[in-house]
């Protein structure tokens, strides 16, 4: 009886995974990619932020100015309450920074698949918002304790902008640092071709590490 052969896992990354990867240096890059590969092989992974995002989207959609956010920490399992309690103040501050609740609506975004060389990267904003004047933003949320680094921010915004026709046409990409209530946008002096070249090199290295981790 022959042993079953394992199906090779093709290199693949989510936007969060890839931007966390580019934020690392040296041996920590290999350790991180190895962890992603093992997680994919075991189909493990849990998103603790689901109810938080749902509450934030509800406040935007129903123009409630933070009512759902103020209640969400009491609705989750006790183990997640400290996390939610740390996230709510900053998210509420960002929500208020958008202006009058009735002047902002929730906009539907779609996921897209970016190809960086031979590496597929899933582009998945959390939601979109549309202002009364018609302009829109595709929003990706950053939940980590540390603020997003310049590299992670630049990679996130560039990849979202690169596929905005599919994600939310004519919108601007925004990365919101939830804990601090700060919105990051692409700096005016950024040269997209240089960012593209940098990310292509990072993607090639990601693929190579993924293969050696098999």
From TrEMBL:
Source species, domain of life: Bacteria
The protein, known as: Uncharacterized protein
UniProt source species: Micromonospora endophytica
